[in-house]
Amino acid sequence: MNVYGDITxxxxxxxxxxxxxxxxxxxxxxxxxxxxxxxxxxxKVAIFRRYExxxxxxxxxxxxxxxxxxxxxxxxxxxxxQQYGDFVQLTDQIQDxxxxxxxxxxxxxxxxxxxxxxxxxxxxxxxxxxxxxxxxGTGRTDVNTALTLGMQRKVTRAFKRQNVGxxxxxxxxxxxxxxxxxxxxxIGLIHPDxxxxxRALAGFKxxxxxxxxxxxxxxxxxxxxxxxYIRSTIFESFADGxxxxxxxxxxxxxxxxxxxxxxxxxxxxxxxxxxxxxxITAPIVRNPGTISDSDKLGQRGHVGWKAYFGAVILNxxxxxxxxxxxxxx
Length: 329
Description:
Blueprint: H1 19-23, H2 29-32, E1 34-35, E2 45-51, E3 74-80, E4 82-91, H3 92-97, H4 102-126, E5 132-134, H5 149-161, E6 167-171, E7 179-190, H6 195-199, E8 205-206, E9 220-224, E10 227-231, E11 259-264, E12 269-271, E13 280-286, E14 300-309, E15 311-313, E16 319-324
Parallel strand pairs: 1-12, 5-16, 7-10
Antiparallel strand pairs: 2-3, 4-14, 6-7, 7-11, 8-9, 9-10, 11-16, 12-15, 13-14
């Protein structure tokens, strides 16, 4: 529980809107997956349908004869939703005596917690994909080499062999659910430790040089050929997971930390967004002073959130995980 004395005094506080605006900067993965807003009074199982490509029609038509036609086939991928949430407590003395905008700040930090929680859950699901490449060797414990252009091209060539489409839209950066168009490309998701290696790739173009007409993600660092790279501290490494560190970043100084770079193509995965009418209940606020059986003097209040979450990989070959080291400066 946060009690009087934990916060530096400044100005009187009251609850203010803006929960989602504090959460939005932390939502990177949400922007590039297929999103299905949670409807009201619905089942906890979200179903994402993937239609399979039709076989080529290579037989010439016969005059006056109707062809047999094709049957459309599809695969339903189910995702069972789980509920997550948390809260922080505040006392009547915080509200009475502190000069900080306490309630407003508590709403802000719980918003950031909600976004980081759901983004980490998405990341954990995606990084468990089965389409894996290693910078060197045959497994994670061998890895001690940084990203190269050849590695990137190995992934994009595999994508193109599978006719994996570019990502052309992202979930809009507003509290409301919607999409906006972006420059067609594959998406590469990196930890900040890998940023210098990406910038060192031949042909790297900084995001600031795109031009004003090209939408840019707030965490996008730039592009190399047909991959746009976006960084986030959510995309954590496997500490000491690789081979002898050499010139790579290492937590212990012995083994190289292994960084999973996630490459995403269109329709590789899907999730429920932290947006829309029913996906999240927040901020949940109770001011101190509310009398109840559990708080007979009204001494306590709280600020919290709860949200439904689900994410699933739709096609393993439409995304890839490249496990690399990060060059130590």
